[in-house]
Design brief:
The chain is an alpha+beta fold and 486 residues long. Helices cover 22% and strands 39% of the residues. Strands 1, 2, 3, 4, 5, 6 and 7 form a seven-stranded mixed β-sheet that branches. The chain has a six-stranded mixed β-sheet with strand order 12-11-10-15-24-21. A hairpin with a 3-residue loop joins strand 5 and strand 6 (184-203). Helix 2 runs parallel beside helix 3 (94-104) and helix 4 packs across helix 5.
């Protein structure tokens, strides 16, 4: 539910961290925005941010790294047509605000002259998807190191072939304040935690690696022993599976993707192509296709920033717009794109709550939140059993996509060779090559086991990284190219 009440509470926290210590209040923000609007601009905003982050890593029982940092600053933006002018400073003061405002307004050619009507501040509505806790304060340093020690102990106890264990814990407390030219004031208080574990297992002189982990927007109490054990089980299983793996075969074949994290393929191959900026410029393979069939029947893809406690979720985006549940593809038909404010205005549509930026030192752009495909009606075992000869990929490493052509390349970190519906043996070194829009038309079976990833995703675009989520059910895709070494 969207309400102004949570925004009022978050604005109070943001003021106490980002305005009051520097002798600022809303009147100074209004003055800075009025300076920008003295020249004719289509939009302008101020983005204040305070971030406290901490990281710990343990290797072979020894604390390898311990880091703590505080960063704060303000980004000032003016938009005129397709042009953006942007300035930022880690010095939060009235002087730097006005200086930045006068700098960015030069994007507009002519001053209006005379008086500028100041828009009265208006509190934006927002969601309440996570508590505004400071996760760093939810455990002391000793307890955090002990937590990582428990992870190592669990991994070593799981199997004698486990030779090395590396565990990491990252926590972040992020407070943002957005003031827009139309008078909108929005704020968010964003916790974020992530635990990761990597193991190296050895057998007969062969060493293989596996990893696990997860997190979200909550405190460190989430990492119960039961939760830690599930991450360890994933990591050890992956490493031991790869110890038995044979070289992956190559060629065109049926590929079945497991549920959850393999949705990263969907994120890269389809999600980026549905971002508004690429479609406005006509550079996406999906440009101009709203209302047309772009995928097989049954394929429904959402970008949903409103799922409670998820890594990719936001109460408001980085432009002060409430996050939304956006249906991008419905039963194979393209319904819309992911939008920030500028691209939405230029395309004549509404923003979708997807304006995101890495920090106050970056401009916002349309970015994904939690991107996933809805489940179908097939039993996952039935889908695997339907493979005559092909690959069953249950986990992925990295991947990349060319937005214009839609071509993608992915490396499978855990995969199996299947013949006549039976899993034969694990394989490694397999890369899945395809074309995103084409691959969506080749989906022939959709499982009833949709699940989201465990909370580890980070997405890069134009040099900016933001936390995201992915998900999907078990999927059968016919005629994908697999590059292998066999």
């Amino acid at each position: 539910m969207i309400s102004r009440e949570p925004t009022i509470e978050r604005l109070a926290i943001a003021r106490s961290l980002l305005l009051e210590p520097f002798g600022l209040d809303e009147s100074h923000l209004t003055q800075a925005l009025a300076e920008i609007r003295a020249h004719k601009v289509d939009d302008a905003d101020l983005y204040f941010q305070y971030t406290r982050s901490e990281g710990w890593s343990l290797e072979e029982g020894i604390v390898k790294t311990g880091s703590f940092s505080i960063d704060q600053g303000v980004g000032v933006r003016a938009v005129s047509g397709e042009k953006t002018a942007f300035a930022y400073s880690d010095d939060i003061s009235q002087a730097s605000l006005l200086d930045a405002a006068r700098t960015v307004r030069t994007i507009a050619s002519a001053a209006k002259g005379g008086k500028v009507k100041v828009t009265a501040p208006r509190v934006a509505g927002s969601r309440s998807l996570y508590q505004g806790v400071d996760p760093i304060a939810t455990l002391d340093s000793t307890a955090k190191v002990e937590l990582l020690g428990r992870v190592e102990g669990m991994a070593r106890a799981k199997d004698p072939r486990v030779q090395q264990v590396m565990a990491g814990l990252a926590s972040e407390y992020d407070v943002v304040l957005v003031a827009r030219a139309d008078g909108t004031m929005a704020a968010d208080v964003r916790p974020l935690v992530r635990l990761s574990v990597t193991v190296i297992a050895e057998q007969n002189g062969r060493r293989e690696m596996g990893s696990g982990g997860g997190g979200g927007r909550f405190g460190l109490a989430y990492f119960s022993d039961e939760q830690l054990q599930s991450y360890v089980d994933d990591a050890v299983k992956a490493a031991l599976t790869n110890l038995e793996a044979r070289p992956a075969p190559a060629g065109e074949m049926t590929v079945v993707l497991g549920p959850g994290w393999p949705g990263i393929l969907l994120h890269e191959a389809v999600g980026h192509g549905l971002e508004g900026d690429f479609n406005r410029k006509g550079s996406s393979a999906f440009s101009g296709k709203v209302g047309k069939r772009v995928a097989a029947k049954g394929v429904t893809v959402l970008d949903d920033g409103t799922i409670e406690d998820r890594r990719g979720s936001l109460n408001v985006d980085d432009e002060g717009n409430p996050s939304q549940r956006n249906v991008l593809i419905e039963d194979g038909i393209l319904r819309g794109y992911i939008q920030d404010s500028m691209n939405a205005r230029l395309m004549g549509v509404k923003p979708t709550g997807n304006g995101r930026r890495e920090s106050y030192a970056h401009i916002p752009m349309p970015r994904m939140t939690n991107t996933y495909m809805l489940g179908g009606d097939k039993d996952p075992q039935e889908i695997v059993a339907s493979i005559k000869k092909g690959l069953y990929a249950t986990n992925f490493g990295g991947g990349q996509v060319d937005i214009t052509s839609g071509k993608f390349v992915f490396s499978a970190s855990e995969a199996y060779w299947v013949e006549n519906g039976k899993i034969q043996y694990p394989v490694k070194g397999g890369t899945i090559v395809g074309n995103g829009p084409d691959a969506l038309t080749r989906v022939s079976m959709i499982g009833n086991d949709m699940k989201l990833d465990t909370g580890v995703g980070t997405c890069g675009k134009e040099g900016q990284s933001v936390p995201v989520g992915v998900g999907q059910p078990t999927l059968r895709i016919d005629g994908l190219t697999v590059g292998g070494t066999a």
